[in-house]
Specification:
single chain, mainly alpha, elongated
Amino acid sequence: MDLPMVVLRFFHIVSGALWFGSAFVFVGFVAPTVAEMGPSSGSFMSLLVKKHRLGSVFNVLIATTGIAGWLMWFVLVSRYTPAQWFGHPYGLVLTTGAVLGTIAGVLGIAVVGRNVSRIIELGDQIRAAGTAPSPEQGAQLARLGAAVATYSRIVLGLLFVAVGAMAVAEYW
């Protein structure tokens, strides 16, 4: 038994499954519901992100998945020559999945997470003022919301391909 690989694989798969499932629920159900609720969803999202730390949970899942995955990748690659690894469908498909998953993680943290935080902060400021959003605030919320919606779908699509590639890489 290769205990280090077992531990890395456990953390990679469990955190990756939680990340993918959470992203699916967020993109498929939470985000559309929040969009339909409009301004009344602000308190819910603020609680979800600030009190229940949704963004932090996503960040931990993304980091755990990526670190464990890349450590496994380096161990696997070290067992082959570059020509053997990249010349075989297994190595190529696994590497493609790793790169796509990494891109999804970077976009998830840097674009989706950051813009969700901006929406929450702006919404909290508007609610604290007890007034309707100004036209500028409304436009900023719309821009940020559109970016979250677009990039969340991109992240989910990348994750779908990455998970699929890793799931079938051994059988190519």
